[in-house]
Every structure is written in C-alpha cells, then in structure tokens.
Specification:
Blueprint (H helix, E strand, L loop, with lengths): L9 E2 L4 H6 L12 E2 L2 E4 L3 H13 L5 E4 L15 E3 L5 H8 L1 H24 L11 E5 L2 H15 L7 E4 H7 L7 E5 L2 E3 L2 H14 L3 E3 L6 E3 L2 E4 L2 E4 L2 E4 L16 E10 L4 H7 L6 E4 L6 E4 L5 E5 L18 H14 L8 E11 L6 E5 L4 E5 L8 H16 L26 H23 L6 H10 L3
Parallel strand pairs: 1-19, 2-13, 3-4, 3-14, 4-10, 6-16, 14-21
Antiparallel strand pairs: 5-9, 6-8, 7-8, 11-12, 12-13, 15-18, 15-19, 16-17, 17-18, 20-21
Helix pairs in contact: 2-7, 2-10, 3-4, 11-12
Bound molecules: flavin-adenine dinucleotide (FAD).
Pfam families: DAO
InterPro entries: FAD-dep_OxRdtase, FAD/NAD-bd_sf
Organism: Streptomyces cylindrosporus
Length: 469
C-alpha cells in the first residue's frame, strides 16, 4: 500500500507510536495460582492509573495487574493523544441526575487534564505533553450552526474560559481550508500515547505493583481472575479491558468494540508548516458527524484519525492494528481537504484500535460492594483523560468499601454505579452500527453539497438508532 509519498505505508504493527518509541520488553507471565489484595485485569491507562493511585494511597496493598499481551497493547498505545476534558454520557447524566451533578462531573474532567499533566511531571514521565487546548473547526454552514450550539452548551456546563472564533481568527491559529469558525477550550493537551503508557507501567512497577504480561484472563468471578496459567484470588477484581471486554466469559454484549483508525504523515518541512500554521499545537477536531481528530506531533508530523470500518461482526477485535486500505485513503482525503498544500505529503503509517461503547454511550465506573467486582470504561472515543478520573474513583471506591476511607467527591459523581442494558445480539448489532456510520457519512456529504445551515435529518435518525440521544 502506498499513499502519495515515495515509501509504502506501514499498516498495523500496533501503532506509529511504537514504531517511534520502541516496544517494551515483555514482562513474565503468571506462573501458577497466586493471591493479592486487588487484582486488575488489563494494562491500559485505566488499569495502570488504578494501580498507581491505589498503591500511592495504601502502599501495603498487594496489587497484581494481569495483561493479555503487554501494557499499552490496546487503545492506550494507539490513540490520537488528545488529553481533553470530554466525557461520554455527560448529557445523559444531566438528564438522569440533574444539571448540577453533570457540572460537577465536567469540573472533575477539567481538573483531570491538569492531574495527568501534574502526575506525569511528578513521576518524570516524558510524554511530549503540550497543553495548547482543543480547537474544533466548522467547514460547512451546518457544521457552523452545530459548532455555535455546541459552544453554548459547553459554556452552560461551566466552561467560562471557552472561546468562539470566526473565520479570520480561526485562520490566524490554523489554516484549515474553508473553515468558517471554531471553538477553543484550554482544557486539552497533546501527548505521545505510548510514552505515557510505557512510563506509567514502569512507575507502577517501581512502586511495587506486580505486572504479569502475556497472561489472558478468560473469566472473572467474585474474588477470582482465571487465566490458563493459574488463578489469582483477591477480595477485589477490577475489570479494565475496554474494547476487549466482549471476549471475557459472560460479557459478549456488554460493550461493543468500535474501531477507530489513524494515519501519520512523514515529517513536514518548515515551508509546509508555514502553509498550515498550527503554532499553538492545539488538538484539532471538526464538527462533522463522522468527525476527525488530529495532533501536531512532537516530531513534526500530523497524526489524524477518524472512523474507518466501524465494527466487525461478532464483536471481533483487530489484528495488531491493521486497518483497511480504503480507510487509509479516506483519512488521507480528509488531510488534503483540510490542508490542500499538503496534497503531496506521504502517509507513513496507518493503524486502528478498539474503543468500548456501551448501549447508551455513557462511560461508567462501578464497584459492586456485594461481590468486590469493579469495572471502568465505555469511554467511547474520550478515554485519555477519563481513564485517570476513573482510576482515582476506583481507588476511592475500594478504600470506601474496605473501610480505609470515607466517601469522597469522586464517589458521588453521577457516572458511578450507572447501569445500562446490553447490546442486541447479531446480526442486529452489526447492521445497526454499520447503518449508523453510513448514515453519518451521507449526512456529512449532504451538508457539504447543499450548504444547508441545519443539521441533516439523516444524522438525527442515526443518533436515535444508535441510542445516543
Ligand atoms: C485509534 C484510537 C484513537 C483514540 N484517540 C483518542 C484521543 O485522542 N483522545 C481520547 O481521549 N481517547 C482516544 N481514544 C480512546 C482511548 O485511547 C481509550 O479510551 C483509552 O486508552 C482506554 O484505556 P483502557 O485502559 O480502558 O483500555 P485499553 O487501552 O484498550 O486497555 C485494555 C487492556 O486490557 C488488556 N486486556 C483486554 N482483555 C484482557 C483479558 N481478558 N485479559 C488480560 N488483559 C486483557 C488489553 O490487551 C489492553 O492492554 C482513542 C482510541 C483509539 C482506538
């Protein structure tokens, strides 16, 4: 496969971030039955941050992390590196628990962006973090109408520091072709996902947490995490498996594994950067229904993502990040539509990963006090920061349950203990998700062609089918 540049595109290999920073040495698998105070299944940001905060709060705890491949194998080693304050489900939580509760959740997310920056600095994790905020642009009249609505909506959740820009002010920040406006929030940073997850795993291990890699958990039951190499028993078993959850016994329809794909360009020249602007290194997104997200990397490239083939039949996940040729081409087209002067820039690497999507698109964190089973996830596409809030909340829930601490502000947030029904069985799951994304793409195309100022009705239908509103 080649995409415009002189060299073929590397496809898969987990992600570009590993090609850049190297793979870690794999840790020893579990070797027979074992006991712990807390066992964490999954070595992504959720599992590792949870181990980190629990061990910091209670150094005497024996904590074991069980990871099927290696820490950072999942979305935490493949994402777009947008550390930002979005959380899936906030609006539904406002409906269920009231605006005030949802404002507290939003405030906690704003603080979480700073907490990740702070903790990484304190632990000496060099993850190329640059806090330039998040800029979301509109390129059609319909997108502009949605952008203004979105901006006002976010301000109503207490984001007084959010700014709305017109076409000229947007162009002063970044020259996206046809941009008619944008909204910027300071609550966002760009980072290198793999440097964060590798650094975090090393810090956690240094604190005395046991990490076993190449150790798939096949079943979770109260006080047991079962693997082919032995069972780890612990009063608390925390499931942090996000997009891979469907492979666990009894969890097939809990969270749907949704794909997201990315490409990264070759390094841009100074002239090319001059044609684009982007000096503020903001995380960049748009207001399309099938939206894109991008960052200017520390090594001078553009990493850009969006929805490829959204979902595989039967909740299958991926092959170490390989993605379809048509997805690579679709992402390249977005890049060139945004930045026409970059038409000749080569794509060097493409990959994909899975997100966890609950039936109502609401992220959750839960500890069932009667069984000691806990879980966090369903972040949809907003997990780089949310995983950290989930981890601090799991820490507080475990400490509350074990009598080591009282309830905290975090344990009272409205996403704690949320329950949702399961996804439909196949083929309805596959048909529903594919139908939804085909409809989003059609809605974007119609909005572009008609220059209408209202959101396409198609997109609203897709939202309803998906259970998003
Ligand atoms: C392409 C892509 C781009 C994204 N971009 C962004 C972004 O820019 N900003 C943002 O906020 N979010 C983004 N996300 C989402 C974000 O990356 C995730 O929400 C977040 O990393 C989830 O972390 P996690 O630890 O819960 O899950 P994961 O990182 O997926 O970790 C789960 C871990 O559990 C392990 N595991 C699974 N099952 C088992 C088992 N049975 N036994 C043992 N181990 C198991 C897996 O191997 C994996 O390492 C993106 C996701 C993808 C895929």
């Amino acid at each position: 496969m080649s995409s415009s540049g002189s060299r073929p595109v590397v496809n898969g290999g987990i992600s570009y971030w590993y090609a850049d920073d190297g793979f870690p040495a794999v840790r020893e698998p579990l070797d027979g039955d074992a006991a712990a105070d807390v066992v964490i299944v999954g070595g992504g940001y959720t599992g590792l941050w949870t181990a980190y905060y629990l061990k910091k709060a209670a150094p005497f705890l024996r904590i074991t992390v069980l990871e099927q491949k290696f820490c950072g194998y999942g979305a935490s080693g493949r994402n777009g590196g947008w550390l930002y304050n979005g959380i899936a489900g906030r609006d539904r939580y406002a409906k269920l628990h009231g605006q005030e509760a949802a404002v507290r959740l939003q405030q906690a997310m704003n603080d979480t962006v700073d907490e990740v920056v702070r903790a990484a600095a304190e632990e000496g994790i060099e993850a190329d973090i640059h806090k330039g905020g998040v800029l979301e642009v509109a390129t059609t009249p319909a997108q502009l109408a949605r952008l203004r609505e979105f901006h006002a909506h976010e301000v109503s959740y207490g984001e007084k520091d959010r700014v709305l820009y017109g076409a000229r002010e947007t162009a002063e920040r970044i020259r996206v072709a046809g941009a008619v406006g944008s909204t910027w929030t300071p609550h966002g940073a760009r980072l290198h996902p793999v440097k964060l997850v590798k650094g975090l795993a090393a810090v956690v291990e240094g604190l005395g947490v046991t990490i076993h890699e190449s150790t798939p958990v096949t079943e979770i039951r109260p006080k047991h995490a079962v693997t082919p190499y032995g069972t780890v028993r612990a009063p608390y078993v925390l499931r942090c498996t996000e997009g891979f959850t469907a492979a666990l016994k009894g969890q097939k329809r809990t969270w749907l594994p949704m794909n997201s794909s990315m490409v990264v360009t070759e390094p841009l020249t100074d002239e090319q950067w001059a044609s684009v602007g982007w000096d503020g290194r903001e995380a960049l997104g748009d207001m399309a229904h099938a939206y894109m997200y991008a960052q200017r990397t520390a090594d001078g490239r553009i990493a850009l993502g969006g929805r490829g083939v959204p979902y595989r039949f039967g909740s299958r996940t991926d092959n170490d990040g390989r993605t379809q040729a048509e997805t690579v081409e679709a992402l390249r087209e977005i890049l060139v539509r945004f930045f026409p002067p970059l038409a000749g820039v080569g794509i060097e690497h493409a990959w994909s990963g899975v997100l966890g999507v609950p039936r109502d698109w609401c992220a959750t964190v839960t500890l069932d006090r009667s069984t000691g089973l806990g879980w966090a996830g369903g972040y949809v596409g907003s997990g780089v920061a949310t995983t950290n809030l989930a981890a601090r909340t799991l820490r507080d829930l475990v400490q509350l349950d074990s009598g080591q601490a009282a309830a905290t502000e975090l344990t009272e947030l409205p996403w704690v203990g949320h329950k949702v029904r399961k996804w439909e069985p196949e083929p309805f799951r596959w048909l529903g998700v594919h139908g939804m994304y085909a409809t989003y793409r059609a809605a974007d195309e119609r909005e572009r062609l008609t220059h209408s100022t209202g959101s396409s009705r198609l997109a609203r239908v897709a939202d309803r089918v998906a259970g998003r509103h």
